[in-house]
Specification:
CATH topology: 2-enoyl-CoA Hydratase, Chain A, domain 1
Order of helices and strands: HEEHEHHEEHEEHHEHEHHH
CATH architecture: Alpha-Beta Complex
Number of domains: 1
CATH superfamily: 2-enoyl-CoA Hydratase, Chain A, domain 1
Strand content: 5-15%
Helix content: 40-55%
Oligomer: single chain
Strand order of the largest sheet: 1-2-3-4-6-9
Structural class: alpha/beta
Largest sheet: 6 strands, mixed
Radius of gyration: 17 Å
């Protein structure tokens, strides 16, 4: 598929661009989807007419992470490809010089949570759920998601999410600073996300980008360095001897 089939732009005026994640049915992650996303984010980040970016989903889930039915059969080349997608896709979002707002309408689980964690401001509906289920499916974290989690989650939230694999609701996510704003109704989500995006868009853009780099530069450099020294393609691959069985158990 091409990026135009997975990613669509909507213009809301004043330089506000909504980038809709559209890999049906639950925005499951694939290497191509993530690399297309990275390219799109980089293009928006370089476009001087863009003042803020909103990420959204038209599905019941915001993003459910990997398709476990597909992933359990990945060979070494496919493991390298998805690790590259996870590293480069979420690094592009985390490093984007433009303000980014995640409008979370449903579950953001495992890799799908990094669309949220790598964004600058997060608005979610009250029914949304958030989790990092990697430990339950027998997979650790590629360097990009790992360093973004370390940089954006406090140590107790890391423990709760990353060592148990259990999801939390919107209120708990707000208490953990994963979510900034909760709306009760999904119809309120995009209007509120646009309000927040416009606030960010009014900030001096060069200064915003500079401050963002000051805050995130060390983490960005760490991820880039790890990628350049083989972080996308370890000799043993991403999965271990437990992964396939763990994925099967998750699938029931």
């Amino acid at each position: 598929m091409t990026s135009s089939e997975w990613l669509s732009r909507r213009h809301h005026g004043d330089g506000i661009i909504e980038l809709q994640l559209g890999r049906a049915p639950v925005n499951a992650l694939s290497s191509d989807f993530l690399l297309d996303f990275a390219a799109e984010i980089k293009q928006l980040g370089q476009d001087t007419s863009v003042r803020a970016i909103i990420l959204s989903s038209p599905f019941k889930a915001f993003s459910a992470g990997l398709d476990l039915k597909e992933a359990q059969e990945f060979d070494l080349e496919q493991q390298h490809a998805i690790v590259r997608g996870l590293n480069e896709g979420f690094l592009a979002l985390y490093a984007c010089p433009k303000p980014t707002v995640a409008a979370v309408n449903g579950a953001a689980i495992a890799g799908g949570l990094f669309f949220v964690l790598a964004s600058d401001l997060r608005v979610a509906v009250s029914k949304a759920s958030f989790g990092l289920a990697e430990v339950r499916v027998g997979a650790d974290f590629p360097v990009g998601p790992l360093e973004i989690a370390r940089a954006t989650l406090d140590s107790n939230t890391q423990r709760r999410l990353m060592l148990t694999g259990q999801p939390i609701g919107a209120v708990a996510a707000r208490n953990a600073n994963i979510v900034d704003i909760i709306t009760e109704d999904v119809d309120e989500l995009m209007p509120r996300a646009q309000i927040e995006a416009r606030k960010l868009a009014e900030l001096p853009p060069l200064t915003f980008a500079s401050v963002k780099q000051q805050l995130r530069g060390d983490t960005i450099a760490m991820i880039e360095s790890a990628i350049s020294t083989g972080g996308n393609s370890s000799l043993d691959g991403w999965f271990n001897s437990e992964t396939k069985l763990a994925m099967q158990r998750m699938l029931g």
